[in-house]
Amino acid sequence: MIQLERREHVTTRTIAVSEIFGVTIQGEGALIGKPTVFVRTGGCDYRCSWCDTLYAVLPEHKAEWQPLTTQQVFAEIQRLSEHTPLLVTLSGGNPAIQPLEELLDLGHQHGYTFAVETQGSVAQPWFSMLDYLTLSPKPPSSKQVTRWERLDRSIMCATKKKDTPKVQICLKVVVFDEEDYAYARHVSERYPDLPLYLQAGNHTPPQSGQEIDIPGILERMDWLIQRTIADHWYTVTVLPQLHTLLWGNRRGV
Ligand code: SF4
Q1: Which of 142, 144, 199, 242 is most buried (CB neighbours < 10 A)?
Q2: Would the pTM count as exceeding 0.85?
Q3: What is the structure's pLDDT at 7?
Q4: How confident is the model at residue 71, as a pLDDT?
Q5: Residue 135 belongs to domain spanning
Q6: 135 CB under 6 A from ligand 1?
Q7: How many domains does the structure of the chain reveal?
Q8: Does 28 map to a domain?
């Protein structure tokens, strides 16, 4: 009886999906280079000044987002991965505003693993079902305000998992300038036990209408590396956005 009720639940809740694509590689953070299928959900509670996925954020794009059932999303993941269980990256927008627990459950039953990328503004109990949680609080250049208590709650939700393996949690901060760098230092001091990844920001997101500025990105990355070394900040990892270097602002890769 309980199972039946649960199945009905699965088929009635829908996930707002902007795009599903892959197999490609994860371009940033702890899982950089890993083969993955991306599920990009639609809708976000933030409006970062340099957001490069506004088509998955702004309400004017809502008509492009498909309300898909868990089974429909998973069927597309299986089609793209040819039924080989691999890493599924749930990104957005903010995937934390979507009902994703049934997808995690279904995918795990078939051997898939799941990573979520979110800014940590909405904490979900289903974070404890994840394999990886990347929290990317947004620095001052984004023009957003970090609600630290919400980030704390997101970490708490993910650490509630009793059995092993535990959810692997990491932090990621995009850095554009000195103010962002100071913010990243604060994040590191606030969460000393979590791995922190820094990446140089992309000044030419799609809406800028400009060509991607690879030399500029590499220059800022060099600055960022020199900055961390000068500070003897040796616990941090500085990475590029690999997908930006390889494919610029192209969608679906
Ligand atoms: S949180 Fe992410 S998806 Fe949302 S506006 Fe900021 S960069 Fe874009």
Answers
A1: 199
A2: yes
A3: 43
A4: 98
A5: 15-247
A6: no
A7: 1
A8: yes
